[in-house]
Structure formats: structure tokens, C-alpha cells
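Appendix B, example 12.
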Amino acid sequence: MMKANFGVGGFPPKFYESDYRFSRYGKRREGIFPWLASLGLNWLELECTYGVKMPHSQATDYKRVADENGIGMSIHAPYYCVLCSANPETVKRSKQDLIKAFGLAAMLGVNRIVFHPGHPCRDDRTEALDMIVDALNTIKLHRPDGLVICPEVGGKKKQLGSLDDLIYICDRIDYARPCLDLAHLHAREGGSLTSSQAIVDRLNYIESKLGRAHLEEGYFHVYPVTVNDHGEKEHCAFFDAGPYYPLAEHFIEAIKVKGIVPTVVCEAKNSQEHGAMLMKKLYEGQPGGT
């Protein structure tokens, strides 16, 4: 039976303040896994912000300690990967970085890699999306069995990464599944996700275009944001005065309506673990989740 996964993106400040930071593991940060387990969480999205640089020995240790603590992992590819650049060298380097991420995924036992579609290099949006599709097809042979790549909703209106952009990519790449960053979607749509029904409507749209399997195998980023005319302004915490959307309650209501067993990564500002724990409690109907 599938189970829901709730976890964090990156290494939250509270981890660095905890005893797990230095006990047993020191600077290589494997203590993140028992720390997450101690909170009742079971997922870590490793953010390769500045490149895929983890040594083989560290990857082996990460996998061992993650397995010991029942923590699943995903990878966020470097943010500077751009598969639709007008510069062929940029596309070449971006494909090489994704291939490196494939290799790291194999060492870690990871089955999801998230990436940003990026900014279109030309006015023709479809042409830019076709460049992404072509690039993903050319690196497919390097992909480990079972690994899926997850284009993420973009937080700025001018970026690629609308729901229709994700659908376009996932419909043409058999190993692609959407990364539904609901905060980004809320922001790029001018503050659209202020109710559970609004989220259900977006999930219904994904299902109608790609099918139930793509929805069930989808991957969520959930946290609140502030919004300006360009889209996302900044991440917030769920406990910040606001309210800022999307709300944890609305998200959990929506996935229960849809019957989804989710993998959810929280990127709330300096409080990723708090947001993940809140959503897990809401999902399980625990005290403190209302």
C-alpha cells in the first residue's frame, strides 16, 4: 500500500541548531536523516543549487543513513540548468548537469529529479518547450530505470512553467511527471489558490489532460508566498500573520477530495519542518493539525 511522504527542501535552520547536526556525522550533515525521523517526517529534497558535486563516498553514506531512518529522497537539479537557452553551450552544459544528477540519483536510490523549465529564449513559447522536450529525449539513455524527471511550476509570470507548459512536457516525455509547486502556481496566476476548491480545480485539469496516473505520481511543493505583479515575491511561513496562500488546510482538503497519496516537500521560509509536520498532522487527522 502506498503511503504519503512529507518532508523538507534543503537543510532547515532548526536542523543546524539541533544536536543531530554534529553528533556522529559532523560536517557532512547525514544527521538530517535521524533529525527528520525524530520529527515524524520521511522525505528530503536534496537541492543541488550550485551543481551536482557530491562525492561517491558521501552519497553512499547518505543512502545508508537515510535507509536506516526510513527517509526517502529526491534531487532538485541545479537552478542554472536551462534546456531552452539560445546559447548551445548552455544547453550542452545543462544536459551534462542533468546526466550528473542521474548518476547521483542512482547512487542515492532516488527516483525523482526536479528541474526548472527556465525562461523562454524566444517569443515562441512552443518552440522553447520543444527545445526542452528534445533535450530530455537526447539524455534519456543515461536515465536509471524507474527515475522520473519533474518539471516544476515557475513562480514568475514570464518564466516557463505554467500548468499548460508542464502538461506539454509531460505529455511528450514518458519519464516526466509534474512537480506541482502550488505556491508558484498561486503567484504566477496572480493569487489564485485561496480555497481548497481552487486547488481541486487545478488537479482536475492535470488529470483531464494527462490522466490519473500522472496526477497520482505527481510531486508537490507546498508553502505560502507573497505575490506581486510579476508573480512570486517571497516565501513565508505557515505561522506568519496574513493569511498568505496557499494554506496547508486547503491543500490537504484538496488531495483528500482527489484521493491522492502525496509526496509533499515544504519550502516555507526558515520553517520547512514546521510546515511539513503541520501538513502531515492535517493529512492524518492528528491533534494539532486543525
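The first strand starts at residue 5 and ends at 9. The chain has eleven helices and ten strands.
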